[in-house]
From TrEMBL:
It comes from Paludibacter jiangxiensis. One of its GO terms (biological process) is protein import. It is found in: Cell membrane; Membrane. It is a multi-pass membrane protein. Its main location: membrane. The chain crosses the membrane at residues 37-57, 134-161, 181-200. This is Biopolymer transport protein ExbB. PANTHER family: PROTEIN TOLQ, TOLQ-RELATED. Keywords: Cell membrane, Membrane, Protein transport, Transmembrane, Transmembrane helix, Transport.
Length: 225
């Protein structure tokens, strides 16, 4: 009798369904689902990183601000122009090239020396700004590529719905989240390029200010000589 009661109790226990483990996706797997549009976005990222590294290295060398005018002033008073030119050329800084241009034009009117130094300064600014236009373009184009990939994905989703006449929330959301990856990637690359563009431009502006200050100091030194 007791055995029968136990069997009946066991039979009345609720049945449990086996727990199925959901397949988890890594971030790399999710990125791969972004589609072919990620290829040009990745290319833009590589270009941006290259420009950032090269410009940062060059500007770091140029921003080692030394007051060359104070260094060459005693040489000018002694008339040792060749030594002053050597010091400026060996500085490996934009202001060194500008001062070298001024020193090589000594003997001409100060106004002519100033004009030659301004022309050299413009050339140095152009050299420092190489590649910056690429960062500006990438900061605008990369998000557009991302949105374009999302639009293509949405078009594909609705085209599939039109063929099957089967509207599934799971199907729509699953396909849409994959296509939103391209938008996120484009925005990320755009943010990197945009931020780097303004940071590097700020460093260039500081170098230009230093060049202007030392150039004026050099010209005043010539006027008072």
């Amino acid at each position: 009798m007791n055995l029968m009661l136990i069997l009946q109790a066991v039979a009345q226990l609720p049945t449990t369904t086996p727990v199925t483990s959901e397949k988890t996706e890594t971030m790399f797997d999710i990125v791969l689902k972004g589609g072919w549009i990620l290829a040009p976005i990745a290319f833009l990222l590589l270009v941006a990183v290259y420009v950032i590294i090269v410009r940062s290295f060059e500007l770091h060398k140029s921003s080692k601000t030394k007051n060359l005018v104070d260094k060459i002033a005693p040489m000018l008073k002694e008339g040792n122009i060749d030594k002053a030119i050597t010091v400026c050329e060996s500085s490996n800084m934009p202001i060194g090239e500008v001062l070298t241009c001024g020193l090589k034009n000594l003997g001409n009117p100060v106004s002519d020396i100033k004009d030659s130094m301004e022309a050299e300064a413009r050339q140095q600014v152009d050299d420092m700004s190489q590649g910056m236009n690429y960062l500006a373009i990438i900061s605008s184009v990369a998000p557009m590529f991302g949105f374009l990939g999302t639009i293509f994905g949405v078009i594909k989703i609705f085209y599939s719905i039109s063929l099957t006449d089967n509207i599934s929330i799971g199907g729509i959301s699953g396909g849409l989240y994959q296509k939103m990856i391209s938008s996120a990637a484009g925005l990320l690359v755009g943010i990197i390029a945009f931020s780097a563009y303004h940071i590097l431009n700020g460093r260039i502006d500081r170098i230009i200010s230093s060049m202007e200050r030392q150039s004026n100091q050099f010209l005043n030194l010539l006027r008072n000589k």
